[in-house]
Amino acid sequence: MNNNSKIKNCFITGGTRGIGKTLVERFANDNYRVFFTYANSTVKATALEQQIQEQGLIAKGFQVDSRKPEMLSQLIHSIITEFGPIDLLINNAGICEDVLDVRTLNMSDFDRNVDINLKAVFVTVQAAIMEMPDRGRIINIGSNLGDIARNGTMVLYSMTKSALQGYTRAMAHALGKRRITVNLIQPGPIKTDMNPDDNEKADYLRSFMALPEYGKTEDIASLAAYLASDAGNYITGSIITIDGGMNA
């Protein structure tokens, strides 16, 4: 891999599909050395690496279990040791589980959602900020369901995404003197292979939206790129919802 010191380092969790894949592609094209994690999709991760490297750009995937914080922190430390500090951290990995009857929820469900949607964010931030340069960037990816729970089927998901709001705001203050910005992007319905715009819930979701159409993964990546750029220097502690007006 290219060790050119002029290339900034970007670390993205959950980078092989949907929003995460587009984030990897966008920041590689923006001349970042991109490191991304994935849980199981080794074939997709390898294909993404090759796709980007064939363009003369830099990306490397790492298989990590987000429920094992020591794996995440060790990975970040090893990247910092070999390639230097992480300039941009994007916490994108997460799980979203429908539960038709909340009476079936148990502590294992609670722990799984908290571990992946919250604890992993805490761990990556703690590891990255030890060496993150002044004016670094942290972007957390949440959900518009952190603001408004449209139904009772995603109790734990909404809980964890709401918690990200408080964490993001507090960390913005904690890191402000170092001019490190911390922001939260809250996507609404975004068209992906796992969330097509013709699924059984699509018309129901569109009924709440001012713009009755699903967003694109590029919409999220473009906003993240703006926050990571010099144009985003003065934006921190912000919760930016991008959902076609669903929560308006």
UniProtKB/TrEMBL annotation:
InterPro entries linked to this entry: NAD(P)-bd_dom_sf (IPR036291), Sc_DH/Rdtase_CS (IPR020904), SDR_fam (IPR002347)
Any one GO molecular-function label of the UniProt entry: oxidoreductase activity, acting on the CH-OH group of donors, NAD or NADP as acceptor
Family: Belongs to the short-chain dehydrogenases/reductases (SDR) family.
Protein name in the entry: SDR family oxidoreductase
Phylogenetic placement of the source organism: Bacteria, Pseudomonadati, Bacteroidota, Chitinophagia, Chitinophagales
